[in-house]
Specification:
The chain is α/β, with parallel strands linked by helices. The protein has 12 helices and 6 strands. Helices cover 53% and strands 13% of the residues. Strand 4, helix 9 and strand 5 form a beta-alpha-beta unit.
Length: 243
């Protein structure tokens, strides 16, 4: 009798793509105990693939650090009257193609929440990308200079969720404003956007250097968007070693 080694099984598995016909045939032939073993094997394979996909998505998201919602302090957030913590944690905004604007005081948890939501989205199988707003503009400008802008915009278009952190923290020139405007407007009703900012809507014209352009962006975001307002003392100042 030929002995089949573990390596033989692994090698064959790497070259196999099971079909319904093969699965049904071998399941029909097997005893209840053998079917139980086969079911366990396939369950483990499916879970392994899901874990691998989650890891790939998290790496591709380029999160600056990994954050979760475990133990997150929600006290600084003022939610809209028709919205709350649970639907946010359930990622309902992604399924409903809704944008989020996290607006308010520095150090109150806006970036933490944005990153944690992006990580949760990746764990649920969604594609996400994180950028600081200035970082995205630099990324797109380099792509344009290298004649790769269309390719980079196509990559962004495939994302389910795009994080724009520190919106309005650094000045953007006219070309950068046009690139940023293109990303936001191209994603209207196509992907979800989370923006963190300490600038109220009335001051967004200073980001784009053009009130009309800012008004067009705001119009799209508020149409399918939620505004979460953050108020309170900076967490970093509160827990700073330097007093």
């Amino acid at each position: 009798m030929t002995t089949i080694s573990i390596d033989d099984i692994i090698d064959l598995g790497r070259h196999s793509s099971l079909t319904t016909t093969v699965l049904a045939d071998w399941a029909e032939r097997g005893t209840p105990k053998q079917r139980e073993y086969l079911h366990g094997l396939l369950t483990a394979e499916v879970e392994s693939r899901h874990i691998s996909r989650r890891h790939r998505l998290l790496r591709a998201a380029k999160l600056p650090t990994l954050k979760t919602l475990d133990g997150y302090d929600w006290t600084a957030i003022h939610f809209p009257t028709d919205y709350g913590k649970q639907p946010l944690m359930d990622l309902e905004f992604i399924d409903r193609a809704q944008d989020l604007v996290l607006y308010g005081d520095v150090g109150t948890g806006k970036t933490h929440l944005a990153i944690a939501l992006a990580a949760a989205a990746c764990n649920q199988g969604y594609r996400a990308k994180y950028f600081t707003t200035a970082g995205l503009v630099i990324h797109l400008r380099r792509a344009k200079d290298d004649h790769r802008l269309d390719k980079e915009l196509a990559i962004l278009a495939r994302q389910h969720l795009l994080i724009l952190d520190e919106f309005g923290y650094l000045p953007i020139d006219a070309e950068g404003a046009r690139l940023l405007f293109q990303v936001i407007t191209d994603g209207y009703e196509q992907r979800n956007l989370i923006i963190t900012t300490n600038l109220e809507f009335a001051r967004w014209g200073t980001i784009f250097g053009d009130d009309t352009m800012a008004a067009a962006v705001i119009d799209r975001i508020v149409h399918h968007g939620r505004l979460l307002q953050f108020r309170g003392e900076s967490y970093r100042v509160k827990h700073a070693l330097m007093k």
